[in-house]
Amino acid sequence: MIRLENIQVGYGHCVVAAFDGDLAFAKAKFISIIGTNGSGKSTLLRAMASGQHLINGNVFIENKNWNDYTAVERSKFISVVLTERSFSHFLSVRELLELSRAPYTNYIGKLAAEDHEVINEALESFDLKQLENRKAGTLSDGQLQRVLIARAIVQDTEYILMDEPTSHLDINHKADLLLQLRDYCHEHGKTIIYATHEIQLAMSLCDEIVSIHKGSIAHETISDFVKSNKLQEIFPSKHVAFENGIVQFKFDS
């Protein structure tokens, strides 16, 4: 379980989002973080992965403070897919996936048969087999996004944090990918927490919602969130309405 205790995230001494008390995420859950632009979705994700300074509070993984884990231990618990893409453009797709097995290889970094099996399964699952020898720098944005998500899956962590994982994908591939990730969570007992602007898909596929509004973080099941009618409060607009979590647009003819 990931547990955030009295969390405050932001920049310098400026708090962007906060939660007073314990904010806990159980295993085998598919969880989305929603909020307006600048509300703190990405900041919260980075703070959970220790990529962002905490103004206040602590992050616990399996009831142990995240600061007390070694780098190798951390790499077995959390993998990330952020909007900032940091990798060598000269590596092939397969080489990128191979590097994500580093937490499990021996001291010389040699891959075992099990590592290759995990990589091959990811290449097939994310429709990347035909691209495995392509250099990362030659891929389209959509192809590269699938590679980076596959890389996180290959790392085989208990928790995966993703920032806008469906960016650069068309609508049918957005739905296919999120359904695939949801099923992965439930079948393998993993937890994915991802920030998104795809409200309709989040309502349809996620188990739980984390919403950030006016600096306050809330965590609810989908049914409770829909009943609360917070969507209209978070996204007020004369052109957008929400009914039972379904987005409706209203334009003058």
TrEMBL record:
<keyword id="KW-0067">ATP-binding</keyword>
<keyword id="KW-0408">Iron</keyword>
<dbReference type="GO" id="GO:0005886">
    <property type="term" value="C:plasma membrane"/>
</dbReference>
<dbReference type="GO" id="GO:0006826">
    <property type="term" value="P:iron ion transport"/>
</dbReference>
<dbReference type="GO" id="GO:0005524">
    <property type="term" value="F:ATP binding"/>
</dbReference>
<keyword id="KW-0406">Ion transport</keyword>
<keyword id="KW-0547">Nucleotide-binding</keyword>
<dbReference type="Pfam" id="PF00005">
    <property type="entry name" value="ABC_tran"/>
</dbReference>
<dbReference type="InterPro" id="IPR051535">
    <property type="entry name" value="Siderophore_ABC-ATPase"/>
</dbReference>
<keyword id="KW-0472">Membrane</keyword>
<dbReference type="GO" id="GO:0016887">
    <property type="term" value="F:ATP hydrolysis activity"/>
</dbReference>
<dbReference type="InterPro" id="IPR003593">
    <property type="entry name" value="AAA+_ATPase"/>
</dbReference>
<feature type="domain" description="ABC transporter">
    <location>
        <begin position="2"/>
        <end position="239"/>
    </location>
</feature>
<keyword id="KW-0813">Transport</keyword>
<dbReference type="InterPro" id="IPR027417">
    <property type="entry name" value="P-loop_NTPase"/>
</dbReference>
<protein>
    <submittedName>
        <fullName>Iron complex transport system ATP-binding protein</fullName>
    </submittedName>
</protein>
<keyword id="KW-1003">Cell membrane</keyword>
<keyword id="KW-0410">Iron transport</keyword>
<dbReference type="InterPro" id="IPR003439">
    <property type="entry name" value="ABC_transporter-like_ATP-bd"/>
</dbReference>
